[in-house]
Amino acid sequence: MHVTPHAGTVTASATANTISGLLLPYGEIGHTSVGPFTVSAGAVDVPANPGSVHLNLQHDRARPIGKAARLIETPRGIEAVFSL
Question: Cα–Cα distances in Å, from 12 out to 18, 36, 38, 40, 80?
Fold first, then answer.
């Protein structure tokens, strides 16, 4: 499945070499290659090891540019900090 994010605010830190923001908002319509969908709180298991979640350039697994340093479940959705 390919997901096209419509990101809100993304924060970058050049000194920490990270980017952060809301990765998966709850209750908002997402658009994928298989059609629209929404995600509810509790529907996704946040991995205990955030580094297992990779950040890829243009969804290309052959071009990783970072790994999750933190994944935080909040009332709004899952927020993430990625180390680049």
Answer: 6, 29, 27, 27, 12
d(CA 29, CA 46): 20
Tens of pLDDT, residue by residue over 24-81, are 999 999 888 889 989 999 999 999 999 999 999 888 889 999 999 999 999 999 999 9
The pTM for the full model equals 0.80
